[in-house]
């Protein structure tokens, strides 16, 4: 394999991994782990989440390869033949295998929770995205991330229910907004998850409401609401408003990146909660 071919394959794998959201989820969970006191264990949290998210991203493009070809989605690296489907499949399985020992570094309780979260995400990629219950895997996979983080602490405490609700709402909001750019292509390919069934306008409304609900859940969890909390919450709401604005003006891809911004601000709110995250 030549250097040019290797570079092309690497670029293709990076694109197939859905790298921006993969990096965002990893960074968000790692920040949360550090703030609740995981210390050096944060490194293992980061590696476990990264390997799990890479497996999810790669499995998505692996499972959707035929559907993406029918839709002529040339932006997909498998469709444009930047990388082979078999290569993506192998990387997805390898990342999933690596996720197991890396998750176990946080203890078997936390690892079990993380396995359920990753399994739920794989189930969505394989079949869930075409079903009316498509939001459920997002709620499960994202809602369990704070549980994975806190169960790795000494004494294995559970996070507050508000933290789980907020994380689940972030996942649900991302799910609804993420379907909007590909709405027409999904319908042509018989992808009829819940967002496709209710339509783009309803998906936009539900997505933004859930993102805002996540912010409110975190604010209500914080014992003392000071200037920092108010500022961060305001920025999060502003990002949510910009999601609506960019979607309405025909820039749904840009709106999706604003969802990641909103999620990051929400995690900064999580960080300001500190020990309040743990029961």
UniProtKB/TrEMBL annotation:
| Record-level GO cellular component terms | membrane
Q: Where in the cell is it found?
A: Membrane
Q: Name one GO molecular function term.
A: transferase activity, transferring alkyl or aryl (other than methyl) groups
Under Gene3D superfamilies, the record lists:
UbiA prenyltransferase
Q: How does it sit in the membrane?
A: Multi-pass membrane protein
Keywords for the protein's UniProt record, in alphabetical order: Membrane, Transmembrane, Transmembrane helix
Q: Provide the primary localization.
A: membrane
Which InterPro entries is this protein grouped with?
A: UbiA_prenyltransferase, UbiA_sf
Q: Does the keyword Membrane apply?
A: yes
Q: What protein name applies here? A: Unannotated protein
Task: State the species of origin.
Answer: freshwater metagenome
């Amino acid at each position: 394999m030549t250097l040019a071919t290797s570079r092309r394959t690497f670029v293709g794998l990076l694109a197939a991994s859905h790298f921006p959201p993969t990096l965002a989820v990893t960074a968000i969970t790692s920040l949360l782990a550090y703030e609740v006191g995981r210390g050096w264990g944060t490194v293992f949290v980061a590696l476990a989440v990264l390997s799990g998210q890479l497996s999810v991203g790669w499995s998505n493009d692996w499972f959707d390869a035929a559907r993406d070809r029918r839709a002529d989605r040339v932006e997909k690296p498998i469709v444009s033949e930047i990388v082979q489907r078999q290569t993506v499949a192998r990387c997805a399985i390898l990342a999933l295998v690596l996720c197991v020992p890396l998750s176990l570094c946080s203890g078997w309780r936390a690892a079990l929770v993380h396995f359920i979260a990753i399994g739920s995400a794989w189930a969505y990629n394989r079949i869930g995205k075409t079903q009316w219950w498509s939001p459920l895997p997002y709620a499960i996979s994202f809602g369990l991330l704070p549980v994975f983080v806190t169960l790795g602490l000494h004494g294995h405490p559970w996070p507050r229910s508000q933290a789980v609700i907020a994380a689940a709402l972030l996942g649900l909001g991302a799910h609804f907004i993420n379907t909007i750019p590909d709405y027409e292509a999904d319908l042509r390919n018989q992808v009829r998850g819940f967002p496709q069934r209710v339509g783009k306008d309803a998906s936009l409304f539900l997505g933004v409401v859930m993102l805002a609900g996540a912010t409110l859940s975190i604010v209500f969890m914080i014992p003392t609401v000071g200037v920092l909390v108010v500022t961060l919450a305001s920025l999060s709401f502003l990002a949510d408003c910009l999601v609506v604005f960019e979607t309405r003006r025909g820039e749904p891809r840009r709106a999706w990146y604003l969802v990641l911004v909103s999620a990051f601000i929400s995690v900064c709110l999580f960080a300001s909660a500190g020990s309040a995250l743990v029961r």
